[in-house]
Write a structure and sequence with these properties.
Length: 454
């Protein structure tokens, strides 16, 4: 049963000294912003039920998630900190004798509500800011960044080791559940670990022969992985028969998982074969068994030229409020994303911005003409490639340079989001998980920013 609020108070609340009832200025203003009933509507429309066990009150859940992303806390730490703080309890609408929701409960609720609810909540935050005339939306800057997936750096040897480890672990669970007990399966994880240690020793030599030796050891790992896959196929066949005969849901779920892991491991083996044959450019290359949709993205940075995750587009107004965001799988060209960002701005504010500023990645004739057609008066889009004399004079105009200097402030906002609100790396797997993670981070940032502006 969905609970939106929990208005119950206890006698202990009235006995508290007045000093303990006062929230900090920031939490007081965020509490007032979240007190709007519109923030409860997305949950009531999608998950409103009157049967079953009562859920965590949505008003409490939203405030808990704000604290989590505002201070970069893990779920367990969040529960502990709220339990020990009277002010945080009052902010989260929890009485002194109430139990703070368990960390696993918060995790399940976050996955259940999904990214669509977060997108609607962020739209409501922007709508409320517009109604209170805290933002005008006359200027818009657009930029992209990469939010990394929660995976280790992908190498052929590492991916092969992951495949062997997960297959072995899943087969062990199947056998413990009584399926394919007499089917032979040899545990080769120690052999794989030894090969990884050998690769580490070879790379420390820093000799010209290191690359050739690493490829040789990787080839040995590939042969071992192929043997593991063949044995796992036999286990899978017998486990499916066991699941059909007994109707065990647990075994059926494990067989589905094992079948998927075998498929992914075979893809890793094929990729390794291609690399050993000298073919370095492999389209749609798998970079993780645990996040299949993560992609390698090059952003031209000196420290980390290639990142593995998803591209995120952010659009920001002159008040430094994030009014729109998009999470993209892969690495679409920046200039293909600008028009949708402008249309989103029109939907939010009912008109086009007076000025638009981006980096040169968004610059193109088509985008400039689109902005002109949309009624944008000041367009600061540096062009890519060789520029004509007239174009150089256009980009050297004072208003153009002022907008470019203002645009560079978007890099600072991205840095704040990455360092302070968790957008450096998504701890939730998959594209939907990344959208949830980004949505909560941006909502926490916007709420704190609005508390400063109000």
């Amino acid at each position: 049963m969905l609970r939106l609020t929990d208005p119950q108070l206890t006698l202990w609340e009235e006995l508290l000294p007045p000093e303990l009832k006062v929230l900090s200025e920031e939490l007081q203003k965020v509490d007032e912003l979240l007190d709007d009933e519109r923030f409860l509507a997305p949950f009531a429309e999608r998950f409103g039920t009157t049967i079953g066990r009562p859920t965590v009150p949505i008003a409490t859940y939203l405030r808990l998630m704000y604290l989590k992303y505002r201070y970069g806390l893990g779920y367990e730490t969040l529960v502990q900190e709220v339990s020990d703080s009277i002010q945080w309890r009052r902010f989260c609408r929890l009485s002194l004798d109430a139990r703070v929701p368990h960390s696993t409960t918060l995790i399940k609720l976050t996955k259940r509500f999904g990214p669509a609810v977060l997108e609607e909540l962020n739209q409501l935050v922007v709508e409320k800011a517009r109604e209170e005339k805290l933002i005008r939306g006359r200027k818009l800057r657009v930029d992209t960044t990469v939010i990394e997936a929660d995976i280790h750096y992908p190498t052929d040897a590492g991916l092969l080791a992951d495949g062997v480890r997960v297959i072995t672990r899943t087969v062990r669970k199947l056998k413990d559940a009584g399926a394919a007990v007499r089917t032979e399966f040899r545990n080769r994880t120690r052999s794989i670990k030894n090969r990884l240690v050998e690769i580490g020793k070879v790379l420390r030599r820093r000799s010209g022969e290191a690359s050739r030796e690493v490829r040789k050891i990787t080839g040995e790992m590939m042969e071992t992985t192929e043997q593991v896959v063949e044995n796992a196929k036999k286990v899978l066949k017998n486990a499916k028969h066991y699941a059909w005969r007994t109707g065990s849901k647990k075994v059926r779920a494990l067989t589905i998982k094992l079948e998927e892991v075998i498929r992914l491991t075979k893809q890793v083996v094929w990729q390794t074969q291609q690399v050993n044959q000298g073919k370095r450019h492999i389209p749609n290359r798998l970079v993780s068994l645990f996040d299949k949709e993560a992609r390698p993205i090059r952003k031209g940075k000196l420290k980390s030229p290639t990142e593995f995750g998803r591209k995120v587009l952010l659009q920001e107004t002159e008040e430094r409020i994030i009014t729109g965001y998009q999470v993209h799988t892969g690495n679409p060209a920046d200039d293909s994303l600008l028009q949708e960002a402008i249309l989103h701005h029109r939907r939010v504010f009912g008109r086009s911005p007076w000025a638009v500023a981006t980096d040169r990645g968004f610059g193109s004739k088509d985008n400039e003409q689109f902005l002109v057609d949309q009624g944008v008066k000041r367009i600061s889009l540096p062009r890519k490639g060789r520029k004509s004399k007239a174009r150089l004079q256009h980009e050297r105009q004072p208003w153009f340079r002022r907008l470019q200097r203002w645009r560079s402030g978007g890099e600072g906002t991205i840095g704040i989001l990455k360092r302070g609100y968790g957008l450096r790396r998504s701890r939730l797997k998959g594209t939907n998980g990344t959208r949830i993670w980004v949505g909560f981070g941006i909502m926490a940032y916007n709420l704190r920013r609005l508390a400063t502006l109000s």
